[in-house]
Amino acid sequence: MTNDYDAIIIGAGVIGTCTAFELSKKGYKVLSIDKMPEAGYGSTSASSAIIRTYYSAYETCAIAFEGWHHWRDWQNYVGKHDGLQPIKYRETGCLVIKTDHNHNLAKICEMMTRIGCPYSDVTSDQITDYLPIADTQKFYPAKAMDDDGFGEPTGGIVNGAVFFPAGGYVNDPKLAADNARRAAETHGATFLFNSEVTQILTFDGRASGVKLSNGQKYHAPIVINVAGPYSSKINSMAGVDKTMKMTTRALRQEVAYVPSPSGFDFEKDGLVLSDSDIQTYCRPELGNTVSIGSEDPPCDDKEWVDDPDNYNQEFTDQWTVQVMRMAQRLTGLPIPNTASGIVALYDVTEDWMPIYDKSDLPGFYMGIGTSGNQFKNAPVAGKILTALVEKCEAGHDHDKDPITFHLDQINKDISLATFSRNREINQNSSFSVIG
Ligand SMILES: Cc1cc2nc3c(=O)[nH]c(=O)nc-3n(C[C@H](O)[C@H](O)[C@H](O)COP(=O)(O)OP(=O)(O)OC[C@H]3O[C@@H](n4cnc5c(N)ncnc54)[C@H](O)[C@@H]3O)c2cc1C
After folding, report:
1. Ligand 1 atom showing the smallest separation from residue 50 Cα
2. So what's the architecture of 7-86+172-247+351-419 in CATH?
3. What span, in angstroms and rounded, lies between the C-alpha atoms of 179 and 181?
4. Residue 374 CB–ligand 1 contact under 6 Å
5. 349 in ligand 1 pocket by Cβ < 6 Å?
6. What is the rounded CA–CA span in Å between residue 369 and residue 386?
7. Which of 67, 208, 253, 370 has its CA 20 to 30 A from that of 44?
8. How far is 369 from 22, CA to CA, in rounded Å?
């Protein structure tokens, strides 16, 4: 069989485009296919695009700190190209509230020390030095709006916080995917938009290409699933879902945009706040706005979505409860009558950590289950998937002898077994968007 390409990538979100970039830099002839009209149109465009280094497992902290180096030096990562309008990364730093529940961040700080990522301890009294509008009372645990005591303090002030200076957010996540797409194109990658993959082709016991809804077939010995919330559908087309321990499912999420409290310029003076006491996070957004997301407390119902093309895109009470929780922390935060923000889907695994792996179908790989927290890791995910392809195609048995991956920027090694499709559920996880 004649191959049209060396590798076909299904999905041109931020993970897919960074993978196309990394593979094409290594000389692979890449075809990226997306059913949307442009790069980053899928869940990437909805991303809060927060860049932070704290996760619950060593390997995820390490890849996030590695990735941070690329965001702060993005132009160098994607290269200078004619007409390229690069994203802006705004380094606000991240303030993370200590709770008994997160063990006052002791384990995360230990991991930061191991990877050489800076942080500083913030006493309860110092929190307002970082966020002058913070009300430092405790509200834990988050409650549903109709629970007794909703919105009322639960006694005392929070235990303190940790400030991570290496963190912030990207102004335009969709543009980040487009930047990586253009960088990939300069290395010879081809992008095909408005084209839906409906079948994974196989030949002689391995992946051999894809078929589109219009009947067109493209052949390549490597096919990579980076389809975001559609990942389980693509895995099922390839028939690899039945033999994996981990699964991926689309989860509906709402992000609220609310004006900054009067007299405070959150866009200019705000920062990324991860608040495990109110189980909500926020960051500055354009137009002096606060963008508010959920840290998925157990009291909130999870809305799993079977068909990513068909889910409720209207705001619900979830929007209101997130805003009201953030109003517990940010003094004077207005609660508008009209909801604005984003409704979108995460692609979630059992332990909210991604799957970067091969599959039981030779030639078929996956960068999926990004669980609402892998935008920041896209450049590293692209490099990890490239290393998996290179080594597995050269005959390495990654399942038996997991690949060790070197993180160049921070000079650390991690085992890619952490991201295996067949791992045991990682009990270190927060089982939330924190990962
Ligand atoms: C509301 C929200 C907030 C988030 N906030 C953060 C954050 O602050 N920080 C962070 O690090 N991460 C965050 N994330 C997570 C992050 O945005 C995602 O992990 C990341 O964007 C996923 O990128 P992707 O390329 O894997 O998927 P996507 O961007 O979803 O791309 C997948 C692509 O595959 C295409 N596709 C699917 N099926 C087919 C098919 N059959 N044929 C052709 N194409 C197909 C889709 O059209 C889509 O464009 C957030 C996510 C959401 C939804």
Report:
1. 8
2. 3-Layer(bba) Sandwich (3.50)
3. 5
4. yes
5. no
6. 18
7. 208
8. 20
Closest CA to 344 of 293, 285, 283: 293
CA 11 to ligand 1: nearest atom: 34
Question: How far apart (Å, rounded) are the C-alpha atoms in residues 272 and 250?
Answer: 25
Helix, strand or coil for residue 81?
coil
Contacts of 215 (CB under 8 A, 6+ apart): none
Distance 7 CA to ligand 1 centre (A): 20
Contact 372, 432 (CB under 8 A): no
Determine the residue of 18, 19, 36, 48 to mutate for testing ligand 1's pocket, defined as the one with the most ligand atoms within 8 A of the Cβ atom: 48
Which residue's alpha carbon is nearest to atom 3 within ligand 1? 47
CB 78 within 8 A of CB 86: yes
pTM: 0.98
Sign of torsion, CA 115 121 122 124? positive
Nearest atom of ligand 1 to the alpha carbon of 283? 8
Domain residue ranges of the chain, discontinuous segments joined by +: 7-86+172-247+351-419, 94-165+249-348
Helix (H) or strand (E) holding 304: strand 304-305
**φ and ψ at residue 323, rounded to 5 degrees:** -65, -40
* Residue ID of nearest Cα to ligand 1 atom 25: 13
Indicate if ligand 1 lies below 6 Å from the C-beta of 432. no
Q: Please report, in tens digits, the pLDDT of each residue of the chain (435 residues total).
A: 788 999 999 999 999 999 999 999 999 999 999 999 999 999 999 999 999 999 999 999 999 999 999 999 999 999 988 888 999 999 999 999 999 999 999 999 999 999 999 999 999 999 999 999 999 999 999 999 999 999 999 999 999 999 999 999 999 999 999 999 999 999 999 999 999 999 999 999 999 999 999 999 999 999 999 999 999 999 999 999 999 999 999 999 999 999 999 999 999 999 999 999 999 999 999 999 999 999 999 999 999 999 999 999 999 999 999 999 999 999 999 999 999 999 999 999 999 999 999 999 999 999 999 999 999 999 999 999 999 999 999 999 999 999 999 999 999 999 999 999 999 999 989 898 989
Inter-residue contact 353 to 331 (CB < 8 Å): no
Q: Are the CB atoms for 292 and 322 separated by under 8 Å? A: yes
**Atom number of ligand 1 nearest to Cα 345:** 53
The architecture that CATH gives domain 94-165+249-348 is 2-Layer Sandwich (3.30)
